Amino acid sequence: MATTTNYSWTTPDDTALVKDGAAAIRSLGTAIDTTVFTNAGAAIAKTIVDAKGDIIAATAADTVSRLAVGANGTVLTAASGQATGLEWALPASGGMTLLSTTSLSGATTTISGISGSYNNLFGIIYGVSNATATGVFRIAPNAATTACNERLRDDTNSDIANGYYLLSSQYNPLFTSTSNIFTFTISNYASSSIIKPISHTSSFIRTGTTWYQNLGNGSYNATTEITSLVFSNAGGNHSTGTVLLYGVK
Q1: 212 and 227: one domain?
Q2: Which of 18, 180, 194, 219 could form a disulfide with 128 if both were Cys (CB 3.0 to 4.6 A apart)?
Q3: What predicted TM-score, i.e. pTM, was given to this entire model?
Q4: Bigger pLDDT: 225 or 168?
Q5: What gap in Å lies between CA 103 and CA 241, rounded to an integer?
C-alpha cells in the first residue's frame, strides 16, 4: 500500500483495485482527522497575542507566554530574572554613568569598591579648599603613593616633572577659594595585565585672585585593576570639595 509523503497515511496503489471505496475513503479521512486534531492541540493559539509587536516567548520547557511590545526605542535584551528570560530595555550607549558623588573632608577621602564594568574612569573635582594656607592635592590609585609617573605643563609653558600620585604638584596647592576645579581620566583602569594611562587638567586660584591652569599626563605603573582612589592634601585637611566619579563605556 502506498503512503503519503509527510504523514504516511495509507492510500491505494495506483494499480490497486478498490473493492470498497467508501471504507478506503473513511480510513483516509480518519487518519487525516486524527493528525489535524493532534497538531491543532499542540499549536500555539493566535489569541495568545493581542497587540501589534507582541512576541511569543518560552517561560519553561514546552510552555509559552506573551511578551508585550516594548516602548519606542527599546531593544529586546536577555534578562534571566524575568519570566520569559527577556525584557525590553534602552540600548547600551557609549556615554558616562555616575558611579559616586563624594565629599572631601579630613586628611584623606577614599572612594572604594569601584565597579570594573567600564572602559575608563573620568572624574570631576570642584569646590576644593583646604584647612591650611598651602598644600598639594593628591590622588592615589589603590592607595599607592609611589606607582604613578606624571609630567605636568603649567600656564608658563614649562614642564615640571613629578610623580608618585595620579595628580600631585607644587603648582596645585589648595587654598581657601572654592572655585578650584580638576578633571582626570584613567584609561583601561579595570585591566589586570597592562599599566593605565592617565591625564588630568586643573584650573585654580593659588594666591589672591590669580588663576592658574595645568595639563598633565602619565601612567599608573601597575597591572592591577584600580578599585579605589584616595584623595589627600599634603598641607592639611580638606575643608570642602566634591568628587564626581564616572564610568565611561
Answers
A1: yes
A2: 180
A3: 0.61
A4: 225
A5: 6
